Structures are given as C-alpha cells and as structure tokens.
Amino acid sequence: MPITPTDVIWMDGKLVPWDSATVHITTHALHYGSSVFEGIRAYDRNGTASIFRLDDHIRRLYDSCKIYRMDIPFTPDEIKRACIETVKRNDLKSAYIRPLVHRGTGTISVDPREADVRVSIFTIYLGAYLGPEALEQGVDVCVSSWNRLGHNVFPAMAKIGGQYINSQLIKMEAVTNGFAEGIAIDGNGFVAEGSGENLFLVRDGVITTPPLASSILRGITRQSAITIARDLGYTVKEEFIPREMLYVADELFFTGTAAEVSPIRSVDRIAIGAGSRGPVTKAIQDAFFDLVSGDGEDPHGWLTPIA
C-alpha cells in the first residue's frame, strides 16, 4: 500500500502542503500509540467521487475517541466537510481517506490527558489492497501464531493506532512465510479476523462471521456485506468459529475498507472449496461493486457524492 503524495493535507482546520504536514518529536502518539483513525474509500461513481458510508466512519471515529477519553476539538459535521474538501482539493475521483486524531505535545506521561488533541486528514489514491488479481482469484492466508487480545486488555471495538502493533506482527509473519495475510485467533481459541480485515465463512449456502465478542473490529464494510447478503436472500449468522471450520468451509472471504470484498483460496496451504472464488462471494462482491461504482442503486443511502 505505497503512498503517492497529493497536494494538500487538512490539519487542525487548515489545508497545508503535503510536505508541511508534520508533528513534533514529543508528540504523545509517537511514544505511546495514542491515536485514533479511520480508513474511508471514495469511489468514482459515474465520473463523480462518492464517499462510502462517511457518516458511519465519522461516528466510529468519535466512538473510538470516547472510549479513549479523547475530546475532538471539531464537530462531526466539520470533520465530514473536511474529508469532502480534502478530496476535492486533491482532485481525486477515487480515494482513500485517512482521518487521524492524535494526542500531541504537552506531556510525556503515560497519562495522556495533558497533551493537546490534534486532527488531520490526508487523501491518496488506493487500488486493490491485496493486489488486483486477489479480487477474482483469491489470496493464500495462514492462521497466525499471534492472537487477538481479550476485551479486558484492549477494546477491540475502538480503532486505536497502538493496537495495530498486534496487526503488524500478524501481517509480517504471514508475508515472511509466503502468504498474503494472516488470520488471528481470539483469546478463547476461536477465529477472530485478519490483520486489517473482517472474515466471513460460507458452508452449505449459509454465511457465518465471528461476533464482536471474538475481539474483532466492528467493521463498516463487514456490516455492509451482512446487509448486502441478506438483501440477496442469504442467511447470515454471527457465531463463534473454531479454527478447523476454516479448512472445511465452502468459501471464505475478507471484508474491509482497503480489502473491500476479497476471496480466500487457501488457509495453511489447504484449498478452500474449489480453491478459487466461490459463487456466494462473487454475488456479494458483484453487488458491492455495482453499488459503489455506479452500476447499481444506493438503496441504503451509503454514498455521499462530492459535487
């Protein structure tokens, strides 16, 4: 996921040149991971950039900050307008949008509350996160040796920068061993999620995904996939998934802002189903991309067009 610089970044209420968007070395988030962020996609929909589920992403941003006792010095509407403005000023029809709230300077204590709270938003172009071929052919993944931590250790529902150290370990281990991604197990031995994606399993036409109690992020693309699947007539259940169910699934797929809807063709070098994208995954994938690309309707009002 390389970064190609764009013209401007929104920082604390102002648009500044890309190279001027800097922070001080005493920034609290650099030392203790005290940042909250979102990943949001804007899609080229009939020649107009449309942001996918902007309201839901900004609500989750504020929820995460509330959990970590961070007061954002802007209203949700101001942050939404800033996301739109930054996409427009960078002249992007398709974009990845990263709002970031972090504790800045003021203290070096583990108690962060004397540090100021800063907000920034950058927008870049982003293609297929797991590779362009992954959306059709699927990816090879492994079960990671690194587990997700329990809710009494980290609040998994909050999208906190420091918690992604765990995700980095999962991802690096997988790539080092020749896989595209790793799947984490929760503290109770059940399947959780990928390093940055939620997971779905299909068997006998029924779709199952781990519950929030499995230390997973409450993914917005996950919620979208559940809604799309039910609209298509599929049964979707949120249940604990033992590791061995991965190997006997008919289909598996990831969801996420970056990953979108990405099929999994093997786990631990065991082929899933026919070892390629399955029909249920394709149906959900097609409906998702029809909606965001402009070929389909937006019945749930998920898109915010940018004039």
Beta strands, count: 17
Number of helices: 8
Q: Compute the separation of the termini in Å.
A: 28 Å
And the CATH topology of the largest domain? D-amino Acid Aminotransferase, Chain A, domain 2
What do these coordinates show?
With 307 residues, the protein is of the alpha+beta class. The chain is built from eight helices and 17 strands. The protein has helices at residues 28-32, 54-67, 76-89, 134-137, 164-176, 220-231, 244-247, 279-293; strands at 8-11, 14-17, 35-37, 40-45, 48-52, 95-103, 117-124, 139-143, 181-185, 191-194, 198-203, 206-209, 236-238, 251-256, 260-267, 270-271, 303-305. The longest helix has 15 residues, at 279-293. The radius of gyration is 19 Å and the shape is globular.
Topology:
Elements: E1 8-11, E2 14-17, H1 28-32, E3 35-37, E4 40-45, E5 48-52, H2 54-67, H3 76-89, E6 95-103, E7 117-124, H4 134-137, E8 139-143, H5 164-176, E9 181-185, E10 191-194, E11 198-203, E12 206-209, H6 220-231, E13 236-238, H7 244-247, E14 251-256, E15 260-267, E16 270-271, H8 279-293, E17 303-305
Parallel strand pairs: 8-9, 8-15, 12-13
Antiparallel strand pairs: 1-2, 1-7, 3-6, 4-5, 4-6, 5-17, 6-7, 9-10, 11-12, 11-14, 14-15, 15-16
Entry keywords:
alpha+beta, globular, eight-stranded antiparallel β-sheet, nine-stranded mixed β-sheet, D-amino Acid Aminotransferase, Chain A, domain 1, 28% strand, D-amino Acid Aminotransferase, Chain A, domain 2, 8 helices
